[in-house]
């Protein structure tokens, strides 16, 4: 049995009715809304969304194209993409980390025996912003992590203006992160993904 078949949060979710032809018969269309793990073939679409979202704000991207491919080859199961009719509209990319706090090495390394999921980036296509998609995707991602037996918590670093957003998603601030990128400083945040045994027993995980 594949991992995907056991994870209900990644199954396609249809948010609107299939389109009909003028004669009233249904046409074959891609799922209206689908969540799935990303693959290396998605890397270019991921980078295009990320580049537009971050370069205008900070002048740089959390992950460059080769780094995206790197993580999607090593740990695609720690990514999640939101697709609308086959088009990527939002995504999260993560990897495993094996220390209490993030360090500079966490930007490029995947530690297969780690129990902390380092969320490198969450981005939404510009056409779909201000619609709550970032919060929804993060919620689904955290639910998905609860189905992974090795995951104990999620870690991320963000600029201070994003702290309220992640607090609303259930993250708590750990304080200043030791990681810096150029002149940018970050706050490190975490979210536990264990302690939800009742939900796991009843979620199909």
UniProtKB/TrEMBL annotation:
<comment type="similarity">
    <text>Belongs to the acetyltransferase family. AANAT subfamily.</text>
</comment>
<keyword id="KW-0090">Biological rhythms</keyword>
<keyword id="KW-0808">Transferase</keyword>
<dbReference type="GO" id="GO:0009416">
    <property type="term" value="P:response to light stimulus"/>
</dbReference>
<feature type="domain" description="N-acetyltransferase">
    <location>
        <begin position="33"/>
        <end position="194"/>
    </location>
</feature>
<dbReference type="GO" id="GO:0005737">
    <property type="term" value="C:cytoplasm"/>
</dbReference>
<keyword id="KW-0471">Melatonin biosynthesis</keyword>
<keyword id="KW-0597">Phosphoprotein</keyword>
<dbReference type="Pfam" id="PF00583">
    <property type="entry name" value="Acetyltransf_1"/>
</dbReference>
<comment type="pathway">
    <text>Aromatic compound metabolism; melatonin biosynthesis; melatonin from serotonin: step 1/2.</text>
</comment>
<keyword id="KW-0012">Acyltransferase</keyword>
<protein>
    <recommendedName>
        <fullName>Serotonin N-acetyltransferase</fullName>
        <ecNumber>2.3.1.87</ecNumber>
    </recommendedName>
</protein>
<dbReference type="GO" id="GO:0004059">
    <property type="term" value="F:aralkylamine N-acetyltransferase activity"/>
</dbReference>
<dbReference type="InterPro" id="IPR051635">
    <property type="entry name" value="SNAT-like"/>
</dbReference>
<dbReference type="InterPro" id="IPR016181">
    <property type="entry name" value="Acyl_CoA_acyltransferase"/>
</dbReference>
<dbReference type="GO" id="GO:0007623">
    <property type="term" value="P:circadian rhythm"/>
</dbReference>
<dbReference type="GO" id="GO:0030187">
    <property type="term" value="P:melatonin biosynthetic process"/>
</dbReference>
<dbReference type="InterPro" id="IPR000182">
    <property type="entry name" value="GNAT_dom"/>
</dbReference>
<keyword id="KW-0963">Cytoplasm</keyword>
């Amino acid at each position: 049995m594949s991992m995907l078949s056991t994870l209900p949060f990644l199954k396609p979710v249809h948010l609107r009715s299939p389109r009909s032809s003028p004669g009233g018969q249904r046409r074959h269309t891609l799922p209206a809304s689908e969540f799935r793990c990303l693959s290396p073939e998605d890397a270019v679409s991921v980078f295009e969304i990320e580049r537009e979202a971050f370069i205008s704000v900070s002048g740089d991207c959390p992950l460059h194209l080769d780094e995206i491919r790197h993580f999607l080859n090593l740990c695609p199961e720690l990514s999640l993409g939101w697709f609308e009719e086959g088009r990527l509209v939002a995504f999260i990319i993560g990897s495993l980390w094996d220390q209490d706090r993030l360090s500079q090495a966490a930007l490029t390394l995947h530690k297969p025996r780690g129990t902390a999921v380092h969320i490198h980036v969450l981005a939404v296509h510009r056409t779909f912003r201000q619609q709550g998609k970032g919060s929804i995707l993060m919620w689904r991602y955290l639910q998905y992590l609860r189905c992974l037996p090795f995951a104990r918590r999620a870690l991320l670093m963000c600029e201070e203006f994003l702290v309220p957003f992640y607090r609303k998603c259930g993250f708590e601030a750990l304080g200043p992160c030791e990681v810096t990128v150029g002149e940018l400083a970050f706050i490190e945040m975490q979210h536990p993904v264990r302690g939800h045994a009742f939900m796991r027993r009843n979620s199909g995980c």
